[in-house]
Amino acid sequence: MEQKINDALNQIRPFLQRDGGDIEFVEYTDDNIVRVRLQGHCAGCPGAQMTIKGVVERILKESYPEVAGVEAVQ
Q: What pTM does this model have?
């Protein structure tokens, strides 16, 4: 599952990098939560939570229904 998540994040990554940011996979928990860390400009962006929920979580849940959610960690 971790490889599938990384593959999906690699598809999202160019859009974040275009704005000076990036995303790092941290872990996939036992309760099916994907934990990620935003980097660069995305880390301090006021819209970071919207990016996590509106983009990253939506894409991961559509691709892999077993994903229950996505959380950002520091």
A: 0.91
